[in-house]
Amino acid sequence: MSNFFLLISFIALLGGCATTGQTQKPSAKPQKPQVEIVEAEGLAPLSDDLIKSREIAISDAQKRAVELVVGVYVSAENFVSKAKLIEDNITGETEGYIEKYDILKEWQEDPFYKVRIKARVRKEDLSKKIEELNLAPKEQTTATVSFWIKEKIDGQPSETSVVEKEIMQIFTDAGFTVSDRKPQEYYKDIQNILDETPENLESNLKSDIVVIGDASSNFNTDKGLGGFISYRAIVSLKVIKNLNKDIITTLQETAGGVDLNKELAAKASLINVGRKSGKELTERITKYFQEHPYNNIVLKGETSINEINTLVRRIRALPTVKDCWLRSFSGNEALLEFVIKRGKISDVAKQIEQTEIPYKILNIDNYSITMEKK
């Protein structure tokens, strides 16, 4: 009998457990902060107090570890121009960014005490600070522009270009900067621009892109317009990126104009075609810079932040490159961005191949180089 009551009690206990609310799901594990693991070396002057020298050397190594990560993610220009800002807010406060460190080696090398560490640098906190201080390279969505649009009315060259004036105004309103350098002051003909080297073109015009082309307006009709006259204008334009002579876009547009006499009707048609083409060009160029703000290098294969740092410094040293920095890094793939000083991306790739680095080039396209760890 006692066994029977024990069985009943056990069943009741199970039933009670089954009806006591919903089963609780195990709480989600907190996400670990993302870190960059780097090796860095610090030093301090040797003194009679070796413990103090050692502490200073370790502190210096920690600073170098944080500095290494910052230097890879920030452009060289910002790293130099905003050095004090970086020192005051980041590298001078290493405790907030280093999660953990191990001493790999320590030794005396007169007149210094030296320490080499492997540090876990908190990437998220550092990235947030870099963004907060406005140190990260920004995507370029506008540019400085030069213009040379030749114009004719009824086959006769015009002294001034109505189309050029209209397009320039639209570019200015859209946030672009118009260069004060006029191409016709440096070149006899538009063809000379097409034949010019990128270095000279950028130097002479002081602009990122140049808009060149022809515009013409011709008599259309005066029939059935109640005394008004109609003109038809056509424009043919080409937009060139001065840095490497790439053609960003080409455009052909037509528009009409009506007024009381030929001069006014011709001008009206040119104004209309200028406004129409200017709007289209600003949209295309803005989209171009949004999609291709910089050239990039995709690194595949296991690598370390120290190896990426070495690669970034070597790419920055190439005569064809103006600057280079790390955009993202996941451990087995990294994305670097760079600005070309002159030439094309194929020229940069050739120079990279001549550099002693542990990567091989897999592919090159118009804006990207893909590399893999050897």
Order of H and E elements: HEHHHEEHEEHEHHEEEHEHEEHEE
Helix segment count? 11
CATH architecture of the largest domain: 2-Layer Sandwich
Low-confidence blocks of residues: 1-30
CATH topology-level fold name of the largest domain: Double Stranded RNA Binding Domain
CATH superfamily of the largest domain: Lipoprotein like domain
Instruction: Give the amount of beta strand, in percent.
Output: 25-35%
State the separation between the terminal residues, measured CA to CA.
78 Å
State the CATH class of the largest domain. Alpha Beta
Find the structural class using helix and strand composition: alpha+beta
* Dominant shape: elongated
Using only CA atoms, what is the Rg? 32 Å
Helix fraction, binned, reads: 25-40%
Spell out the blueprint of helices and strands.
Layout: H1 2-18, E1 35-45, H2 50-73, H3 76-81, H4 83-91, E2 98-109, E3 112-122, H5 123-132, E4 144-153, E5 156-157, H6 162-173, E6 177-178, H7 190-195, H8 198-205, E7 209-221, E8 229-241, E9 246-259, H9 262-291, E10 295-300, H10 305-316, E11 321-329, E12 333-340, H11 345-353, E13 359-364, E14 368-373
Parallel strand pairs: 4-6, 4-7, 10-14
Antiparallel strand pairs: 1-3, 2-3, 4-5, 7-8, 8-9, 10-12, 11-12, 13-14
What does this entry look like structurally?
By secondary structure, this protein is an alpha+beta fold. It has three domains: 35-132, FlgT, N-terminal domain (Dodecin subunit-like); 144-291, 2-Layer Sandwich (Double Stranded RNA Binding Domain); 295-373, Ribosomal protein S6/Translation elongation factor EF1B (Alpha-Beta Plaits). The protein is 38% helix and 33% strand. The chain is built from eleven helices and 14 strands. The protein has helices at residues 2-18, 50-73, 76-81, 83-91, 123-132, 162-173, 190-195, 198-205, 262-291, 305-316, 345-353, and strands spanning 35-45, 98-109, 112-122, 144-153, 156-157, 177-178, 209-221, 229-241, 246-259, 295-300, 321-329, 333-340, 359-364, 368-373. Strands 4, 5, 6, 7, 8 and 9 form a six-stranded mixed β-sheet that branches. Helix 6 packs parallel to helix 9. It starts with a helix and ends with a strand. The model is unreliable at 1-30 (pLDDT under 50).
